Amino acid sequence: MKFVVRFRWLLLAFWIVVAAVLTWKAPNMENLVREKGQITVPDGYPSRLASEIKQHHTSEKEGSESFIVVFHDNKKLDSNQIENIHKTIQKIKSKEKELSVNSVTTHFDQEELKNQLVSKDGKTILAILDVELKNREISSVRDKLDNAIATPHVQTMMTGNGLINEDVVISSQKGLKKTELITVAFILIVLILVFRSVVAPIIPLITVSLTYLVSQSVVAFLVDKLNFPLSNFTQIFLVAVLFGIGTDYCILLLSRFKEELSKGNEVVPAIIATYKTAGKTVLFSGIAVMIGFASIGFASFKLYQSASAVAVGVVFLLLALLTVVPFFMATLRKVIFWPLKGNISHSESKLWGWAGNLAITRPIIALGIVAVITIPLLISYNGKLSFNSLDELGNDYESVKAFNIVSNGFGSGEIMPVTVVLENDESMKSKEYLGLIENVSGDLSKVDHIEKVRSATRPVGDVMKELYVRNQAGTISEGIGKGNKGIGDIKAGLNTAAKSLSKNEPKLKSATAGIGDLQTGTKSLQSGITDLQTALEQIEKGIRSGSTGAGELKTGIMEARKQAFALKAGVNELLTNYQKMQQGVQQLESNYKQITNGITSIQASLMNLNSHFTQLESKYNGLKEDGDYNAIKQTVQGTAQSLGVSAGALTELDKNLSAVNNGFQQANTGLSSILSGISQFANSFNSIITGLDQLEKGMSKAADGQSQVIQKLPDVSNGLGKIADGQQQLQKGFGSVGEQLSNLTNGLNQSTDGLGKIQSGLDDASDYLNKMSNDSNLQKSGVYIPDELLTNVDYQKALDTYISKDGKMTSFDLVLNQNPYSNQAMQTIDRINQALKTSLKGTKLENAHIGISGVTSMNHDLNKMSNSDYSRTVMFMLAGIGIILIILLRSLIMPIYLIISLLLTYYSSIAMTELVFVHMLGYSGISWAVPFFGFVILMALGIDYSIFLMDRFSEYRQLQVKEGILMAMKNMGTVIISAAIILAGTFAAMLPSGVMSLLQIATLVLSGLLFYAFIVLPLFVPVMVKALGKTNWWPFMGNK
C-alpha cells in the first residue's frame, strides 16, 4: 500500500490514459449488441436443429428474416385502398435488391393464400417479406422499408420476431441511458446524506466511472475479437453492479478510513490500517461477487453467459479500489469529509443495535418477525414464468401495435405457426412416404390446441378426403352401386317387356278371334260354293235346253275364278307372314336363353368374390369391423342374389315365348288348310268354263242358272268379307305384337348396358382392392395415394412447398389457437414431441432427424435450457461462494447459515416480484430470465453484506459471542444499510427503463436487498450466531 501511496499520481494518470484510449478505440457496444447480442439457442435443441435442416435442404439463407407488412384500416378496406396496397407491393418488388428483400409473398400473386393473408373482416391485408440481414443492421433495412411501404389512406406498419427483438434492443438502450443518469444522481444524494460531505461522494463516482469505461471497452474488444457473450442486459448489469458494489466498497473503505482517523492515526497509517481490515473485506467480497458472476460462464445459454462480463468489471473495480481510492485518501486527507467540522467520529447504527439486541435476547420473537414476513410470500409463490417478448415493450412500439392488429384479425397462431421439419436419408416423394406424411399430419392435428396442420398432403390445412381408404371405399361402393343400378335397369327392361306382352295379350286374343271368324267365313264360303254347285247344275240343265246368254255366263264365271285366285293369294301371303313371325319368336327365345346363361355366369363370378373377401379379412386385422368394407361386401353379395332373381325371371319369360311360338304353329297349320281348300275351289272353275264353252248354244237356260249363281254369289262375297275383316284384325293384333317385340328389344338392350356397367364397376373395384392389398402402409395409416395424384400439376406445387427439391426434407406448419408466446403454447410443444414419437415409431421415418422451429418452439427450448443452466449455475455459484466464506471466516458452520439466509431472501423477494407483477398487475408470469439473473445478482451482492458483518464479527473473537456480534452489528449497521440503499437505488434506476424484464429484475433485487439489510441479516443471522456459540468457528476453533 505504501507503494500505491507513493506513486499515486502516476497510477491515476495511467488510469485516465488507459480509459481514454480504450474508450476511443473500442467498438460501439450498441452495434455489437445488434450484431452479436441476440438470443440464440445452442446446438442440439429442436429449434436450432430445424434451422440447420432448412439451411441444408432449402434456399433459406442464414441471416434472413421474415418481416410481416400490415396494411390496416379501422373499417373494411375499399377497392381504392386495395389498389393502393397492390401498387405498394409492386413497388417493393421492383426495388427488391435496393431494399434487401429476397422475396415477397402476397395473395395478389397466389390467390390460394387469400384466407391466410386477408382478414375475414376485410380490415387487414398482410404481405410477407423475406429480408436479407446478413452484414446489415436491421435498423437500416427497417428505415428503408418504412419509406417503401407507406401507402396512401392506409395504416401501414411492420412486425415479426426480428423487429420485436430490435425494439427490445432500442428499449434497452433507452433504459440504459436513463439508468446511468438516475444512478449517478441517486448515488450523489445518498453519499452526501451518508457522509454529510460534498467531497466524499465524488471519490466513488470517479473510481467507478473509470472502472466502467475501462470494463465496457475491454468487454467490447472481447466480444468483437473473441465472441465473448453479449446481450441487451450486459451494459445495464455493468452499470448497476459496478456503481452499486463500487459505491458500497467505497463507503466501507471511507467509513473505515474515517474510523481510523477518529482514532488519531496519521493519514498513511490510517490508509494502511483501512486496507488491512476493510480492504481485506472488500477483496474477499469482490472475489465472491466475481466468482458469482464468473460461474455464469458454465451456463450453455449465451444470454446467461453475457452477465459474466460483470466479473470482468469486478476485476477492474478491485484494481481501482486498490489504486484510485488510496490516491484520494492520501491527497485529500480529512478534506474528503468536508465540510464536516470538529473531530471526525464514526457513529454506530442504533437500528441494527436494537435489532441485534432483540435477536440475542428474544430469538423466538426475532425469528417470528422473519417468519411472518417471509412465509406468506413463500406460500403464495408458484413460479409462473412468461416468455412473451411483447411484455418487454409497451404498446408505443410499432412492432407491438402491428402484432396486436394481426392477432385480432387473423389469430397470432396463423402468422407465427410452429413448423416441424423431418429430415430423411432418402427422398420422400413417393406414395409410401406421402402416406406416412399424411399419417403424421393426422396425428398432429389431434393434438390439443392445434387448429390446423399444413403439409405435403394438406397444402391448405384441410384433409384431402380422397386419400383415405374409407372415402375410396365409398368410391368403390359407388361403382358397385352403379353396377347394381345396371341390374336394376335389366330388371326394369324385363319388366317393361313383360308388361308390354301383358298389355298386348287382349290384342293377341282378338287376333285369334279374328282367325276364328276367318274360319267361319271360309265355311260360309264352302256352303256358298255348294249352293253355287247346285245352281250350276241347274245352269247345266238350262244350257242343255238352250244356249241363250252362254257367252255372258262364261264371262261371269271367269271373273269368279279370278276372285277365287285373288283370295288364294291373300291367304298365302298371310300364311307367309305368320311363318316369319314364328321364326322371329323362335330367334327371340334362343337369344333370351343366351342372356339367361350370361347372367348365371356373372352371378357365379360374384359369388367367387366371397373367397377374396375372406382372404382380405384374414390378412388385415380389424377389417371385419370396418363399416365401409362391410358395405362393399354386402353390396356385392346382394348383387349376386339380384342376378339370380333376374335369371329366374328370364327363364319364366322364355317359357311364355315358347307358348307364343306354339300358338303361331297352330295358326300356321289352320291357314295351310284354308289355303288348300281355296286352291281346290279356284281350280274347279276351269271345268265350269270348259263346260260353258259346250253350252254356249243353250245359254237361255244357262241365263236362268246364272241368275241363281248370281244370287248365291253374295254369300261368297260375305264370306270373303269376313275373311278380310279377320285379316285386318289379325294384322292389328300382330302389329301390336311387333311393337311389343320392339319394346322387348329395347329392354334387352338396356339389360346388356347394365351388365356392361356391372362388369366395368366390378373390374375397377377388384383392381383397386388388389392395389390396396399390396400397399404396406395402408393398414397403419388408412391412406392410399392414387397414381393420378402424383402426376397432378397443382399438387406438385404443394409438394414443392412442403418437400425440398431433393425430397429428403418435409415440413409441417402447425397453426395453434393460442398466443405463440404463451406458456400454454409451450406446453403444446411437449404434446407435439410426444405425438411425433408415437406417430413415427415403427415406420421408415422412425430414425428421421426432427426439428421444431418458430417462436413457440424457441421459447420452449429456452425454458428447458434455462432450467438446466439455472440448476448448474446455482451449484457452481453456491460452491464458489461457500469456498470464499470458508477461507475468509475460517469456518464450515457460518457459510451454511449465511447461504441459507441468502436463499431465504431470494425466494421471498422473487415471491414479492410475482405478487406485484402477476397477482397485482395481471401479467401472465415473471419474465423467464428474471429468476436466473435475480438469483445470481442477489446472491453475489447479498454475500457482500454477510462478509461485511461476519468479517467484522471475526475481529471481536476475544469477546463473548453475544458481545462480539452485537458490536459488529452496531459498527457495520450504518455501512450495510447505506450500501444496501445505494445498491437498491442503482437497480431501482432500471424501473423507468420500460423493459419488463429489467423492471422485474430491479424489483427482485431491490426487495431482496432491503429484505436482507433490514430483516434477515439483522434478525436471523444473530440468532444463529448466538445459538451456535463457539461452534460458529468449527472446525477451526483452535486457530480463532
TrEMBL record:
Keyword Endoplasmic reticulum attached: no
Name of a matching Pfam family: MMPL
InterPro entries: MMPL_dom, Mycobact_MmpL, Serralysin-like_metalloprot_C, SSD
Keywords: Cell membrane, Coiled coil, Membrane, Transmembrane, Transmembrane helix
Keyword match Membrane: yes
PROSITE patterns: SSD
Regions crossing the membrane: 6-24, 181-213, 233-254, 282-301, 307-330, 351-379, 870-889, 896-922, 928-950, 971-991, 997-1021
Coiled-coil segments: 571-626
Major location (coarse): membrane
All copies of domain SSD, residue ranges: 899-1026
GO cellular component, one term: plasma membrane
Membrane-topology descriptor: Multi-pass membrane protein
Family: Belongs to the resistance-nodulation-cell division (RND) (TC 2.A.6) family. MmpL subfamily.
Protein name per Swiss-Prot or TrEMBL: SSD domain-containing protein
